[in-house]
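Why does residue order matter? Because the sequence determines the fold. Keep that principle in mind as you read this record.
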Amino acid sequence: MTTLRIDSSITGNQSVSRRLTAAALERIVAEKPGVAVVSRDLAQKPLDHITLAALADTEVLDEFLGADTVIIGAPMYNFGIPSQLKAWIDRITIVGKTFRYTAEGRPEGLVGNKRVIIAVSRGGFYEEGNALEHVETYLKNMFGFLGIVPQFVHADGVAIGPEQRDAAIANGLAEVERLAA
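Structure:
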């Protein structure tokens, strides 16, 4: 059993999404003692944007495919995911490996047996249907394309003020505790 932790926040120790990914990882390790953990910090060691040459390097894809559980920190930057996280997604979305097209041209995900937990942190409140929310919507569709139904934990309103930040973190941590095994 292997768990892969992906962090993409640039704010280091101040990061709310990192706090939630750490809590989710702690929960996984408590549930499954002896689980191997692989961590990738996309802010500290960013991947280059996708190029044809970059596709030849399969390390990132192999990490993803080798993990039973993937925990992803996804802060909202300018209404979307960090470009570092997008570069990682580009490395794992590979035709013939993580998805294929059927004879009718419809996509079919190939990695539906994987648990993905996504820790979303947002400065404001972006409920479902908000035209400015492009983090959870994008990631739900992107992982769905790969055959995965991700689980989400949320910390919303972290930029409103200190009290709301604390409440958002408490909410996110409570959602981590309620994750289905």
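The radius of gyration is 16 Å.
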